[in-house]
Every structure is written in C-alpha cells, then in structure tokens.
TrEMBL record, chain A:
<dbReference type="GO" id="GO:0031416">
    <property type="term" value="C:NatB complex"/>
</dbReference>
<dbReference type="InterPro" id="IPR016181">
    <property type="entry name" value="Acyl_CoA_acyltransferase"/>
</dbReference>
<dbReference type="Pfam" id="PF00583">
    <property type="entry name" value="Acetyltransf_1"/>
</dbReference>
<dbReference type="InterPro" id="IPR051646">
    <property type="entry name" value="NatB_acetyltransferase_subunit"/>
</dbReference>
<comment type="subunit">
    <text>Component of the N-terminal acetyltransferase B (NatB) complex which is composed of NAA20 and NAA25.</text>
</comment>
<comment type="similarity">
    <text>Belongs to the acetyltransferase family. ARD1 subfamily.</text>
</comment>
<keyword id="KW-0539">Nucleus</keyword>
<feature type="domain" description="N-acetyltransferase">
    <location>
        <begin position="2"/>
        <end position="158"/>
    </location>
</feature>
<keyword id="KW-0808">Transferase</keyword>
Automatic annotation (TrEMBL), chain B:
<feature type="transmembrane region" description="Helical">
    <location>
        <begin position="800"/>
        <end position="824"/>
    </location>
</feature>
<keyword id="KW-0963">Cytoplasm</keyword>
<comment type="similarity">
    <text>Belongs to the MDM20/NAA25 family.</text>
</comment>
<protein>
    <recommendedName>
        <fullName>N-alpha-acetyltransferase 25, NatB auxiliary subunit</fullName>
    </recommendedName>
</protein>
<dbReference type="GO" id="GO:0031416">
    <property type="term" value="C:NatB complex"/>
</dbReference>
<comment type="subunit">
    <text>Component of the N-terminal acetyltransferase B (NatB) complex which is composed of NAA20 and NAA25.</text>
</comment>
<keyword id="KW-1133">Transmembrane helix</keyword>
<dbReference type="InterPro" id="IPR019183">
    <property type="entry name" value="NAA25_NatB_aux_su"/>
</dbReference>
<dbReference type="InterPro" id="IPR011990">
    <property type="entry name" value="TPR-like_helical_dom_sf"/>
</dbReference>
Length: 179, 933
C-alpha cells in the first residue's frame, strides 16, 4: 500500500533515507531532476509508504516526432528501495507512465537497460517490453570497468495498432545514431 | 556556446574560429584571434565580447569587465554580441547586467519577439517579478501568444508569494491575476492545461475553494489530463479544505474500489467517515447521497468495506496487496482512539498481525509496516507475539551450536523480521549482558550462514543477511554504552568492517562506521567512508553535517578542508542551477513548480550546515595559512544563523579579520595621514565585535549548563560545550580583547601611559597562565593498552585542537602587538639619539613585558610540541599485534582480523592528527621568532 503522488523538490532531501537512493540512484545531479520537474512534471511520480518513507520513483518524458510516428514516452529512471522490492511497485509505476503516454498519444514507450542487468531485463519482459535494438557502449566506463552495451526495449501503445514501432532492428547501433 | 546566427553574415564566418577556441577551452588563442580580427574590423563588437570571455576565463576579470562595458554602453542589437555578453555576465555572476542589456535592445528594436522574451527571462533570473509582469505584457502586445500573457499572470502570482505584506497579496496581486485569467476565460481564449493549472493555483491561494471546485469540475477542468487523476486529486483537496465530508468520503470510496492499495485515500475515507459521524450527518435523499455517489456514515459500513477489501485480496490468484490489511489495523487504531467498542468486529490485532506476517513476512517492508501498529498490542502480549511469529518461520534442524537456520532467502527474511520486531518491542533491551552476548552469537551465526545465499550478488548489491550484521553492531553499541567496556566498541567496528567486506555498497554499514570513527576521534577512515558513500548533491547537506562537526575538531586539517570544499561546491552550483530551471518552468508552463523551485533554493541557502561550512572553511584558511591576505569578502561574512557556536566562530573570524586589516597593512600605516580615519573606524568595529562575542559567550554558557545529551545515533553535539569547559573560548576572547587595549596604547604613545602599559603586561601574563592550563588539559594518552585492552580518550585530541587553535589566535594578536610596538620603539630610539647625554631612560614596561611574553609563548609552544612528540612516540610504540583478541568472546580468527584492522585505522588516524597538529605548531613557532625586536 502506497501513496502515489507528484514528485516535489523537497523529496530530494529524503533521498538519503533509502539505501537505494544512496547506491544506485543519485547518479544524477540536481539540475537533471530540476530539468525534468520543469519540463515533464506529470512524468515524475514518487511512491510513499504509510510511515513517510520514500519507496521508489519513476521519472520520464515524452519526445519524438509525431509525423514519423516516433512520438513516445521514455523511462529515464525507475528505482525502488530494496526494502520495498517484490511488491509489484515497479510494475505499478511503469503502468502509470504508460497511461500518461497513452493520453499524450504516444506510439510506444521505451527505455534503456544495461545488457548485464538480467533482473531488470526480465522484469521489463514480464511487463510486455521487448528488445528493439542493442546500443553499443551506451553506458560509459567507470571505475576501471569497460563500456557497456544497452538494450533499447519497447512496448507498443494502443495508437500503434499494427505494432510497427517494436519490430526489432537486427543490427546493433551506436549511441550517436539514436535520437 | 551561443547560437551562431545564419550563414549569410560574413561576420559569423570571421567569428567562428574564436568561438571554436573558446569551446575547446583554448582561451589564449581566442584572445589572440579576437585581437587579430579587431585590428582589421574595429567595429566588430562581438569580437570584443568574445575576447572578454577569454579574459574572464583566464582570471583577468577586471580587464574583461571593462572591455564588456565598452560594448554594452553602445547598446548593441546584434544577436552575436547580445548572446556573448549574456554568457559573459552569467560567468561573472552579474545576471542583473543582462537585464540592462536587453532593456536597451528592446527600446531600439521594439517589435522583436526574441529580445522581449530574452528580457523577460533576464528578469526571471534575478527575480524581478514586477518587471517580469510588464515585460510579459509587452511581449503579448507585440506577439499575442497565450504563453506570454500567462507569463505575466504568473509574475503577478510571484509578486503575491514574495510580498512581505500578505494583505497586499490578497487584495491586489492575486485578484488582479484572477481578473486577467477571467478575461481570457470569457473570451474563450484558454488553450493549454498549464493555463488551467495556473487559474487553479490563483483561486486556491485566494481561498476561493468553491470557485476552484466548480472550475475543476467544469469544462475547463477537462483540460487537466497530463497528470493521472489530476481532477480527482484537486477535487479531493478542495473537499477537504471546504470540509465537504460527504463528497470527500464518497470520492475516497470510489477511488479505493478502483485501487485498493492507495493509502492516502484510506486516510481520507476514515477522516471523512468520523467527521460525518460526529455531525450525525444523514443523506438528503435515498437515491443520491451526493454528487460523488454513496457515502458511508457508520462504523458498520466502514468495517464491512474494509473486510470486503481483504476478502477480495484473499480470493485473488495474483500477489495480494498490503493496503486492505493495513487499513484494517488503521481502522482498529482509530476506533480505539475514539473509545469505540466496535473494533472487535475486525478481529484481535495480534491475530491480524500474525496473519499479515503470514502473508508478507518474507518482504523486507513487513517490519516497517507492522512497526506502526505494534502499540495495538498490550505489553503482556509481546513475548507471546514473538513466540507465535517464531512458529511461522521455517527453520532447519538445530545443529551443534544450538541454532536452526533458514533454507532459503524467504525464510531468512521472515526470521530477520522476527528478530527486528523483537528489537523494536524492546525485548532485546531487557536482556542482561550475558543474554546480549548470547544474542550476538546467535545473530552472528545467522549472518554467516545467510552469506551463502548472496554468493552470486554483484558488488553493488546487498547481501541478504546484512541486516543481521547491522543488528549485531547495534547490540554491541548497547553493551558499550551500558558497560563502558571499550572491547565492545572494537568488536562492533570489527563486525561492521567484516560486513562491509562482503557487502561493499551497504550504506548503513558505512554510516554507522563513520559515526563510530567520528566518536573515536579517528577522522582518517571517515574521509574514505564518506567518499565511498559517493554523497551526491543534497546529501552534502543531509549527511555532510556529520563530517563538518568532526573534521577540523580532530586536527585533520587537510581532510577537513577537502570535505568543506566538497560541500561548498554543491551549495554554490545550486544557486546558479535553480535559476536556470525556474526559467525553463516558465517556458514549459510548469507554473506549479516555480514557487517550489524558489522554496528549494531558499531552503538550501539557509541551511545551517551551509553557513557552518562557509565559516569553518575560512577559519581553517586563517589558521593554516600564515600569511593570509584578507579581503573585504571575509569581513562581509553574513551572520544570519542563530546557532551560538556558529556565532562564536563567526565572531572570532571577524575579529581576526579586522585585526589583520589593522596589523597587516604596513604600507598604509607608514603614511601617517591616512592612519587616523581608517584606524578609528576599524577600532570601533573591533569593539562592537568584542562585546558581541562577550554576549554570545554568556548565552553559550547558559546553553551548555543545560548539558543536553543527544542519543547515540542522533545529531552530534556541537563543539560548544568542550570549547567553553576547556577554557579555549575565554582565552581566545581575552587575547582579542588585548588587541583593543593595544590600540589605545597606539594612540596614547609610550609617554604618559604607564597604567595602560601595566594593564597590557598583566594581560600578557594572564594569557600565558590560561594557555598553560589549556595545555595541561591535553595531557594524557589518546590511545593506550591496559591489561591487554585498548583504551581511547578522543577528547584529549579535541582539547589539543582547541589548544592549537587558541595558540594561533594568541599568535595573531602577538603579531599585531609587534606591529603596534615596533614603530613606538623606533620613535623612542630616535628620541634617544637626539638626547644622547641622557641615556638613563629605562626601557618602557610594555616593551620588556612583550619580550618576556614572546619568550614564554615560545616556551609553551615548545612544551606542546614535546607533548605531541611524546604522544606520537608512544602511539608508534603501541604494538597492537600483541593484543590478545577474542578471548572469552568466541571471536574467530577472521573476526579478530577485522577488529584489528579497525584498531589499526584508529591508531593511524590519531598519528596523522598528531602529525598535522605538530606541523602547524612548528610553523607558527617559526613565525614567533620574527616577532622579536
């Protein structure tokens, strides 16, 4: 049970209450969050537990050309604190982002995920996402580890009746070749 | 870099290389290229500005500024110059100059949409709301686009928010904003969702909730589509404000049927239900209760509603939701609060909580959920509850050590939850020492057993059994605080170090270690831990305060300086960044976010921690850098914070700064004419500051009398208490006081001042006595081995730091004294030469007294250095390896290794602190030599 609400700036102060926010999540600077809050506030949702703890959040945006049928919702960040995992919260947050994208008339929703992150890849598959293409060395190296490829995963929305947007591209692409 | 305009302009082609150099950070070449271009094309203003950017970036601010102003006074209207100047002014932190620039441009080109819009944004950057309102309107009149009109409306709302006088907001700004929107509504010109949201914001701030509700429910409300449940949420908010409990109840009910996991709606459902009951409300007619549908007005209905929701979940094949079961406990809690007997219909809380544990016990959040409702159990049920929970945990057969272990991670999680509940219920606290040690053994066994489930975990993942380890650490801390046995502390450090070795990303391990090392006065490992936490952004505020409390006070000045810098960088960039996003919010019509961004920026700016870091950083600079050049900046240090310690520190800083201005300006002092005004003005500053310091110290004494003790995991207490009790504060204050007396002597001269001179000499002597006392408080061993136990006395280290800081302050005053006395002495000698016959004039008391004083100071510093050396020697001589660890505590070889590693870290850190303190003392001792006549 959860309270789902719009993310506010003050939530930034609560981030370090949660292990996850310390470890996985605060890879972004304040400007990054503020940019999303200023541009796509509706796509920035936080889940709060009855005790007031932040359980997780999702942050996304809408982008792409309508004429080329590339207008879509994008998942920029999705994170659930370890103590609130395996409750279906990520699925709920994804569902909300998809619903918002539906209303905006998007053709699909997409996201990038590390090829090595099997847990996440499987979760997205369960939620109806499929690998659309591989992006070579999308994640730049850190701490001496090599660059890593990303899967660009997509799920068609109702506007894309023929589900054209998710037909996989067989050849990997380079980061500079994606918009 | 700036947009480069269009291809057709030949100037663009000429400027291109300069832009490229600037983009690549090659500022020198950019300047050269600009000079070359300016030789041929004198009137190419943009080249001048680009050159100025190059100069600014190479540290030649003044040159850059005057060059920029040359162009600005011409009031340029070409894109290139305007944009380049905008960039330059922003880098100079002079955003107000951008407004001047575009004010001029708009006057010259009144029909330019672009310049008008730049002007609006320039005002937004500096928060000139009234001018924004006008600029927005002017823009709308030039180009009638809706967003421009609403920029102007939003600027009115911002004037209302920032108005000192709430009446002005309510009677002028907001009504005007409302009328502006109404006009558009009447003309049916409302286009975007953002405009409706802004309208709602205005009505809400005006307290016109009925109007706001009508608007949201009406045709305008249909535009509220981006945010999920936007209309419902806004209606709910208005129902609550208007206390329309029937509507509130019915809407909550409706939304819960749709999503039985939405916690906030259970709360509004219960709230409204009880309000209705209190008012004995009954529906006006049978069919329709209210516009939102059926309303619940009795406990029976609520009980049935909650029970139905639980049954729905029980029937489901998929994963059950926690909401309905938690709602059941919440309802019991509320009924009990009201003394309502009907709670029995929902069942026994103990059974319900067991049922909850049965369903969700394998989820890590089970503990945080149940914790909220443990108060529903009477104390006599606690043990029964723990035992019954235990029955629900599947554990394997009991082995030789007497423990049974979980077979998988789900069972482990259940077991862990029971352990945590037992701690929360206080059942662990009632154990005696022996019982606690047994508990530790059991938890450790579970911890080690559980590690096998996480063998394939990545470095960034946590171990399933980490929480056991954390619990062990907490029981050790209990034992340490109860018995004072430092061995418990060392083993606690050991177990946390072990935990970290298996789970290198566990932030809770790191934070607890960080706290413990801080308490031990071992700052070196803290620095590594903090950087491995990879604190980001806001965390510099939320966690950083821990560091700043301990960094400088433990004599690790280099590390302290580094950690202050970390935090400062974050705070400064915040100020620039937020303004950018306020502007973006206007562009994208995220009006609701604008006041939020501004409040966020204010919150960060007012952070006490920020003020502390700023002050500590500057004091540190003063203590460590012998020849510090003080700028006006130091004196303008704002003293907004009320924190007394901060005030003491700031006052000390300001006193030293004024002193430096007086003493370290020999060039000014030589010309006697300028002396008068300058000095008298400064001396009154000195006097004011001193009396402020005196007052603050009095307040401080009152505060420390209370002797507030914070819980171990609570905030660290400030250095105030020990600063006062060590005598350091008073010694610093009397040293600073002395400088005032010296000033007096400077005006009076050596003749006719015997009383003053005696007074000064007495102060000299008294300072020596105070320093001696302070030093004697530092005596003792920070780390020693007694009966094969390792004992720490970190407070000695802290006192030693106080001593060194105080010596620094006294030496500053000494060097100021020398600068006062030296000219007096030489004028005396001149006089002597003139009257060669009369050589009987004795040396004035103050001069001999000063010489004696510097001698004594030298002596004290030498003593202190000897003490530091002695401590270093005994620390180095400590052979930790000789300690027999683990006796009687059943520590394995491996565990002992971790404990030893923690001890090593503490020892090394103490040594480091001593070395830095020694170095600082030596440096300052050298400066003493130069004070002799």
């Amino acid at each position: 049970m959860t309270t789902l609400r719009a993310f506010t700036c003050d939530d930034l102060f609560k981030f370090n209450n949660i292990q996850a926010f310390l470890n996985f999540l605060s890879q972004y600077g304040i400007p990054f969050y503020l940019q999303y809050l200023a541009h796509w506030p509706e796509y920035f949702i936080v889940a709060e537990a009855p005790g007031g703890e932040l359980m997780g959040y999702i942050m996304g945006k809408a982008e792409g050309s309508v004429a080329r049928e590339e207008w879509h919702g994008h998942v920029t960040a999705l994170s659930v604190a370890p103590e609130f995992r395996r409750l279906g919260l990520a699925a709920k947050l994804m569902e909300m982002l998809e619903e918002i994208s539906e209303r905006k008339g998007g053709f699909f929703v997409d996201l990038f995920v590390r090829v090595s992150n099997q847990v996440a890849v499987n979760m997205y598959k369960q939620l109806g996402y499929s690998v659309y293409r591989t992006v070579i060395e999308y994640y730049s190296a850190s701490n001496g580890e090599p660059d890593e490829d990303a899967y660009d995963m997509r799920k068609a929305l109702s506007r894309d009746t023929e589900r054209k947007s998710i037909i996989p591209i067989p050849h990997p692409v380079r980061p500079e070749d994606i918009e | 870099m700036a947009a480069r305009g269009h291809v057709q302009d030949p100037n663009d082609r000429r400027l291109r290389p300069i832009y490229d150099y600037l983009d690549n950070g090659n500022n020198k070449m950019a300047i050269q290229q600009a000079d070359k271009l300016l030789k041929k094309h004198k009137d190419l203003h943009c080249a001048k500005v680009l050159k100025a950017i190059g100069l600014q970036r190479t540290g030649k601010q003044d040159e850059a500024f005057s060059l920029a102003q040359e162009v600005a006074t011409l009031e340029p209207t070409d894109d290139n110059s305007l944009q380049a100047l905008t960039i330059l002014y922003r880098e100079m932190h002079r955003p107000e100059l951008v407004t001047k620039l575009y004010e001029a441009a708009v006057k010259k080109v009144p029909l330019s949409e672009e310049y008008h819009s730049h002007l609006f944004m320039a005002y937004a950057r500096v928060g000139e709301y009234k001018k924004m309102q006008q600029a927005g309107m002017a823009l709308y009149k030039t180009v009638p686009k809706n967003p421009y009109y609403f920029w102007s409306v939003m600027s009115l709302v911002m004037q209302a928010i920032s108005a000192q006088d709430e009446k002005l907001a309510q009677t002028m700004f907001l009504p005007l904003a409302e009328r502006m929107v109404e006009k558009m509504v009447k003309e049916e010109k409302i286009e975007a969702e953002a405009e409706v949201q802004l309208y709602f914001m205005i009505l809400e701030r005006l307290g016109k909730y009925v109007e706001a509700l009508d608007m949201v429910r009406g045709p305008l409300g249909e535009k509220l589509t981006s945010e999920l449940q936007s209309r419902e949420n806004k209606c709910m908010m208005m129902y609550q404000r208007l206390q329309l409990w029937p509507e509130c109840n019915a809407l909550s009910y409706k939304l819960l049927l749709k999503n039985p996991d939405e916690w906030q709606f259970y709360l509004s459902y219960f709230d409204s239900l009880f309000h209705l009951m209190d008012k004995s409300w009954s529906p006006p007619n049978e069919e329709e209760h209210c516009v939102e549908g059926p309303v619940h007005t009795t406990v029976a209905e609520a009980v049935k509603f909650v029970v139905d929701r639980m049954e729905e979940e029980d029937k489901k094949d998929s994963r059950p939701l926690r909401g309905p079961y938690m709602a059941c406990l919440e309802l019991i809690h509320r009924l009990r609060q009201r003394g309502c007997p009907d709670e029995e219909e929902l069942g026994d809380p103990l059974e319900l909580m067991l049922q909850f544990f049965g369903k969700f016990g394998d989820k890590p959040c089970c503990i945080t959920d149940l914790k909220i409702y443990l108060h529903l159990l009477p104390p006599e049920q606690h043990t029964q509850f723990e035992n019954r929970l235990g029955e629900l945990v599947p554990l394997g057969e009991v082995g030789e050590d007497g423990f049974g272990f979980p077979g998988d991670t789900k069972a482990l999680q259940r077991h862990l939850c029971v352990c945590q509940l037992s701690r929360v219920l206080g059942l662990q606290h009632t154990l005696d020492t022996e019982g606690k040690l047994c508990l530790i053994t059991e938890l450790k066994a579970h911890y080690h057993y559980g590690l096998q489930f996480g063998k394939s975990c990545l470095k960034t993942e946590l171990q399933f059994s980490d929480t056991y380890c954390l619990m062990v650490a907490h029981v050790y801390i209990d034992l340490w605080t109860e018995t004072g046995d430092e061995n418990m502390l060392w083993q606690c450090l050991g177990v946390l170090e072990e935990g970290l070795s298996y789970s290198p990303s566990n932030a809770q391990f790191k934070l607890l270690l960080l706290l413990l090392f801080c308490r031990l006065g071992a700052f070196q490992p803290v620095v590594d831990l903090y950087s491995s936490l990879d604190a980001k952004h806001v965390q510099h505020d939320t966690i950083g305060y821990l560091l700043t409390r301990y960094a400088g006070s433990l004599g690790q000045f280099a590390a302290a300086s580094q950690s202050y810098n970390f935090s400062l960088r974050f705070f400064h960039s915040n100020q620039k960044d937020t303004s950018e996003y306020i502007i973006q919010a206007y562009k994208y019509g995220a009006f609701e976010k604008i006041p939020e961004f501004i409040a966020f920026r204010t919150r960060l700016n007012q952070s006490l921690h920020f003020a502390q870091v700023r002050t500590e950083r500057m004091l540190l600079d003063l203590y460590t850098e012998a020849d510090m050049e003080l700028t006006e900046e130091h004196r303008r240090l704002s003293l907004e914070e009320e924190s007394v310690w901060l005030k003491v520190r700031s006052l000390t800083l300001r006193l030293l700064a004024s002193l430096a201005l007086l003493g370290h300006a020999p060039s000014k002092r030589n010309s006697d004419k300028t002396n008068e005004n300058g000095v008298s003005a400064k001396s009154s500053t000195l006097q004011t500051l001193l009396s402020q310091l005196d007052l603050t110290l009095q307040t401080a004494a009152q505060i420390t009398e209370k002797q507030t003790q914070y819980p171990f995991l609570g905030p660290p207490s400030s250095r105030l208490a020990s600063a006062l009790s060590s005598g350091s504060c008073h010694c610093q204050a009397s040293a600073l006081q002395l400088s005032l007396t010296l000033q007096e002597l400077e005006t009076t001269g050596l003749d006719d001042s015997s009383e003053l001179q005696t007074q000064i000499c007495n102060s000299f002597k008294s300072l020596i006595v105070q320093l001696q006392e302070l030093l004697s408080r530092c005596k003792g061993d920070v780390l020693e081995m007694k009966d094969s136990r390792l004992m720490t006395q970190p407070s000695l280290l802290e006192t030693l730091v106080f001593f060194v800081e105080t010596v620094c302050v006294v030496l500053w005053v000494a060097s100021y004294s020398a600068s006062v006395l030296r000219p007096l002495k030489s004028s005396l000698q001149k006089k002597k030469k003139k009257k060669t016959k009369d050589s009987s004039t004795a040396m004035p008391v103050v001069l001999s007294g000063f010489q004696e004083w510097t001698g004594s100071l030298q002596g004290i510093v030498t003593q202190a250095l000897d003490h530091v050396k002695g401590q270093e020697a005994s620390l180095t001589a400590l052979k930790l390896a000789a300690l027999t660890l683990g006796v009687g505590h059943a520590q394995t070889q491996e565990e002992c290794g971790f404990t030893r590693a923690a001890m090593d870290k503490v020892q090394t850190s103490y040594l480091g602190s001593l070395q830095e303190l020694g170095d600082l003392l030596r440096k300052r001792a050298d400066s003493l030599k130069s004070l002799k006549f």
